[in-house]
Amino acid sequence: MCLFDKSSLWLEQNHIAELPSWTQPLPIIGNLHIINKRAPYKTFLELAKQYGPVYSVHMGLNKMVILCGYETVKDALVNHAEEFSGRGTLPIFHDINKGNGIIFANGENWKVMRRFTLTTLRDFGMGRRTLEDKINEECDFLAQKLEAFKGKPFENTMIMNGAVANIIVAILLGHRFDYEDPKFLRLMSIINENIRLLGSPAVMLYNIFPSLMRWIPGNHKTVHKNIAEFQRFIKETFTSYKDHLDVNDQRNLIDVFLVKQKEEKPTPGLYFHNENLVNLVGNLFGAGMETTSTTLRWGLLIMMKYPEIQKNVQNEIEKVIGSAMPQMEHRKKMPYTDAIVHEIQRFANIVPSNLPHQTTRDVSFKGYFLPKGTVILPVLTSVLRDKDYFEKPDEFYPQHFLDSEGNFVRNDAFMPFSAGQRICAGENLARMELFLFFTRLLQKFTFRPPPGAPDVDLIPMDGATRNPNKYQMCAVPRT
């Protein structure tokens, strides 16, 4: 069955095949009856085995093209970067952000916000020593927090959230929060709750049937309430900053945005308006905290699971760094540690399904015709676990990034930040954070399960991102 309404005459004249569709969709619900509601990517991977790397599914009445495997995803996002650079709409977010910010924006508004974000992140140190120093300062606060447990068991979610969040907070607001600050804890709790709820079947149904579901109580209403509370905090913050704005002393991203707002010509408020600011800050705070802190939590859990790997990392740290403060320049001398950090990202697979893309114009892709506005899902799990590029895709295997002589080797299918024009704007910041936090923590501590605890479990919990289940750990200071 052809996914799109193009006549057979058009297809024949242009020698473009019909797009393969997965089974006959049912009325109204489409293919929903067979899709894994809590982990749709698992269904998409299974279907790719039967239908190949490009096929379509019906999510209710909505038609979507699924892309699987490194070669296919790269071809779309890199070789056809402009054509696949649109963002597919998710009603749960569109209800509030209305296409503002950066993650869910499209067209010229997205381009302006992305350009502003990248420039401002660089101006505030992304990729430079000044931000390294800020991260290492936060590493010391984190180490002090862990030392306070004196080797006794604790749960690390909010602590790791706080440490990573403080880096993006320093850029956005110009200061850091204490880990016990009630307002800070509330903001992080909102994000954590939304991440869990956004992966629920109820929110999936809302995104598919928004007109119907918006009248029914459920998780989508909690998500909206949480986002509204988060945005109130942001509005209060930049309103107070406006009162003390000094164009000659721009202290943080909000200041820079407010100055742009004053300068915007010829049409004031065209791009640098308050709704863009609220959503941009929210996007950067949420994304800047959640994915990196979750990756680090996976990393510590994996080190507990494989103590011999943890010891190998510590040996390399001792050899290259000793007791000095880790710096990014050390990474090229630490191939094993670099490989471990990469493999943690690959194995953790934080955003398994990716966010939906959308074609910006009609495009011929892999012999199929995709009209402008086609919703595309490039499944990142299918890239990070592509058997053609990773020898043991379902296992934690550092040799994916090491050659026979122990040198670090790049792997083309390492794509945790996605690729193309929609690649994560904070990729360089995240890479810096992951290496410095991970190295500093293993320099200072050995991580172990609590005495008598069962075997370490690497099974993820449900959610919009792939989090480890909450776990207890002991951070034993190294002497």
Entry summary:
By secondary structure, this protein is α+β, with helices and mostly antiparallel strands. It is 49% helix and 9% strand. Strands 1-2-8-5-3 form a five-stranded mixed beta sheet, sandwiched between helices. Strands 4-12-9 form a three-stranded antiparallel beta sheet.
Relevant terms:
three-stranded antiparallel β-sheet, 12 strands, 17 helices, five-stranded mixed β-sheet, disordered N terminus, 479 residues, globular, alpha+beta
**N-to-C span:** 66 Å
Tell me the helix content: 40-55%
Tell me the series of helices and strands, N- to C-terminal.
HHEEHEHHHEHHHHHHHHHEEEEHHEEEE
Shape, per Cα inertia axes: globular
Strand content: 5-15%
Per DSSP E runs of 2 or more residues, the count of β-strands stands at 12
* Number of alpha- plus pi-helical segments: 17
Largest sheet: 5 strands, mixed
What's the Cα radius of gyration?
23 Å
Global structural class: alpha+beta
Mean pLDDT: 92
- Low-confidence sequence ranges: 1-16
Strand order of the largest sheet: 1-2-8-5-3
Topology:
Layout: H1 8-14, H2 40-51, E1 54-59, E2 62-67, H3 70-79, E3 86-87, H4 91-97, H5 107-123, H6 129-147, E4 154-155, H7 157-172, H8 182-198, H9 201-208, H10 210-213, H11 219-243, H12 253-263, H13 274-305, H14 307-320, H15 335-348, E5 357-358, E6 363-365, E7 368-370, E8 375-378, H16 380-384, H17 427-444, E9 445-448, E10 460-461, E11 467-468, E12 472-477
Parallel strand pairs: 2-8
Antiparallel strand pairs: 1-2, 3-5, 4-12, 5-8, 6-7, 9-12, 10-11
Helix pairs in contact: 4-11, 6-7, 6-17, 7-8, 7-13, 8-11, 11-13, 13-14, 13-15, 13-17
